[in-house]
Amino acid sequence: MALEAVATKYWHALADGRVQCDLCPRFCKLNEGQTGLCFVRAREDDAIVLTSYGRSSGFCIDPIEKKPLNHFYPGSAVLSFGTAGCNLSCQFCQNWDISKSREVSRLSDQASPDGIARAAAENGCRSVAFTYNDPTIFLEYAVDVADACRARDVKAVAVTAGYITEKPREELYAHLDAANVDLKAFTESFYKKICAGALAPVLDTLCYVARETDVWLELTTLLIPGENDSDGELDEMTGWVVENLGPDVPMHFTAFHPDWKMLDKPSTPPETLSRARSIAIRNGVRFPYTGNVHDKAGGSTYCQACGEILIGRDWYELSDWNLSEAGRCRSCGATCPGVFAEQPGRWGSRRQPVTLSG
Question: Are 159 and 192 within 8 A, CB to CB?
Fold first, then answer.
């Protein structure tokens, strides 16, 4: 397929001759030939173009729980891919080799939207995930892939920081079936100091997805010792989630390990994740999970009516499955919020690289 920059529409010209990108709250103002902080949206011929359309850092089949999504076709396989760049600058980035790459030309895997959808269907994937870096910055490509997937009855999933403005947000989420939004912390100071961003736009995205769309939503917070793991911040965060998004939105508290520009912090103790989960439960979060640690209890799903285990998980392997065909608890009949098939998937913990031909 041809590797050419594609036109975008979320920008406008400024009186001083620069062009402003309106995709995300960063509002990069560019002279001719410049790129935004994301590295993949650039000014060419007095317009903003996407330079990474049709190119990927690689494709891999993962368990859906790795995204993490625990209430969206559990046990199923998802075809994951990303491009390059990011519109935040998180010092702790766990995928920095992809998200911080300025070399779009290094994206050797090429694939058309239909090629991706076809590969997902042929490999038995229930969904395709835009992940590794944020799909916000390759919105045009993500939307086209999502549409191609829908034509083949394959779902589209976004793993995102939710750092996007109103109109692009409406377009992106109109094409998605599920999203895991990374709620990195619950203070503006954290977002400003550590991510070079802002919290408020992320909260706006969360409220929009939960209240205005049918997209299945789950949240993830990477807990960093001494930065966003205090009882007070966790209490405020989980209370806000219940009040503004509802008690049924799953929250994943995951363990940090030193990476990128944050090598001076220790890895997150498992006890911190358990403490966060307890605070969430106390505040009314019905489905809090722990991640990046071996914690069968913290990774499993329980009925909120009778307490019986609904979905047992050991890392990415499913054990117990006590949901009926209608997604109800087989013990008491209560509904478990989520998107479920009649039977769980059997992909397990495998990770299978895939090469696409176009």
Answer: no
